[in-house]
Design brief:
Number of strands: 6
Structural class: mainly alpha
Helix content: over 70%
Mean pLDDT: 68
């Protein structure tokens, strides 16, 4: 009987042997595989399957040959499903590898951006530390300024108290001056009276008694005059004492004014330092703003590859879903394969019951399909090789 087997295609040897039967791949097939042109291979293999299938459909065999035909085409269909699934799977794997390479390149870019980001963070931290040091100096200067302001306020309060005392003493001084002026006026009036009495005394040619009365009055007025002079002297002494009292708080007031002027000078110096620190602080803020802007730009550059990364991940997920669908199809095909194997076993059993010395049978794809007649004359079932596709063979099937 006809006993032949079509072996599954595997992509690792140019010649595969099993039980004395060989499956030989042509160089063109391996060039396609090595060049990873899987889609082209899939299309060409599919075309060859259809040509073989058409040739077998046009060929009429004996009943025994029909059993062999069914067996061969069950195997051919089974192998075709396996090859198609395998090639589609490899195409998906190739696409996934390409996406993974792109993903790694994005990861490299992101790592570089993250490193730059960390360097900027370090610069910003250093500038912030300098800024804090300046803030500390400014706070210290402001505290000193407040202390000086407090001293100035205290000195101004003392000065006001001294001014109040001086004003009180000046009032007392004015009162004494008024009293002195009044006593001087009285004194002048007494002097005028005395002068008048003396004039009267000189004019009088009266007895001595009258003259004595005038002298007594003059003496009395002189006594009053002396008392007034004594009062005036006492008032002048009091005035001098008041002047002395006034001079002391004035001196204190001048000293306080000098202290206030010194404190104001110190305050102005501190204000100048604070202004200088504020200028330095503003410069630092400007320096900090620039890396912060760079930081934001880097974040944007990181966000963009992250978005691309997610899109690639989505593509990979989609390809994995397709891959799972292919795996499911392959599982379904394996079930069909088992069913076909069962049918083949049944056909072989039927075939074996009709054993006879039939002529050997040979299939050569892309050469010609022929069989030997009972009178050992070979009849061509297809056109010659010159009339068929000029593409090289994909596989050859040899009988035992």
């Amino acid at each position: 009987m006809i006993n032949r087997e079509i072996l599954p295609i595997k992509f690792f040897n140019k010649e595969i042997s099993k039980n004395g039967k060989k499956l030989i791949f042509t160089q063109h097939l391996f060039d396609l595989i090595e060049n990873n042109n899987l889609e082209d291979l899939l299309n060409k293999v599919e075309k060859r399957w259809k040509e073989v299938e058409a040739k077998w459909n046009d060929h009429s065999l004996t009943q025994n040959g029909e059993f062999d035909n069914k067996i061969d085409f069950s195997i051919i269909q089974n192998n075709r499903l396996k090859i198609n699934s395998s090639i589609q799977n490899k195409v998906l794997v190739t696409k996934m590898k390409s996406i993974l390479i792109q993903n790694k390149e994005l990861d490299t870019k992101m790592d570089s951006s993250i490193v730059q980001n960390k360097e900027l963070d370090t610069k910003i931290d250093s500038l912030l530390i300098q800024n804090k040091e300046l803030d500390t100096k400014m706070d210290s200067s402001i505290i000193q300024n407040k202390e000086i302001d407090t001293k100035i306020d205290s000195s101004i309060v003392q000065n006001k108290e001294l001014d109040t005392k001086i004003d009180s003493l000046l009032i007392q001084n004015k009162e004494l001056d008024t009293k002195i002026d009044s006593s001087i006026v009285q004194n002048k009036e007494l002097d005028t009276k005395i002068d008048s009495l003396l004039v009267q005394s000189n004019k009088l040619q009266s007895p001595i008694i009258q003259n004595e009365e005038i002298n007594t009055k003059i003496d009395s007025l002189l006594v009053q005059n002396k008392e007034l002079d004594t009062k005036i002297d006492s008032l002048l002494v009091q005035n001098k004492e008041l002047d002395t009292k006034i001079d002391f708080p004035l001196i204190q007031s001048n000293e306080i004014d000098a202290k206030i002027d010194s404190l104001i000078t110190q305050n102005n110096n501190i204000d100048t330092k604070i202004d200088s620190l504020i200028i330095q602080n503003n410069k630092l803020d400007t320096k900090i703003d620039f890396p912060i802007i760079q930081h934001k730009e880097l974040n944007n550059t990181i966000d963009f590859p992250i978005i691309q990364h997610k899109e690639l991940d989505n593509k990979i997920d989609s390809l994995l879903i397709q891959n799972n669908e292919l795996d499911n199809k392959i599982g379904s095909l394996l079930i069909q394969n088992n069913e076909i194997d069962t049918k083949i076993a049944s056909l072989i059993i039927q075939n074996n019951t009709q054993e006879s010395n039939l002529p050997s049978f040979k299939i050569q794809v892309n050469e010609e399909i022929s069989y030997l007649t009972t009178d050992n004359k070979e009849e061509s079932l297809t056109s010659t090789n010159n009339e068929t596709d000029s593409e090289p063979d994909y596989f050859l099937i040899y009988d035992k």
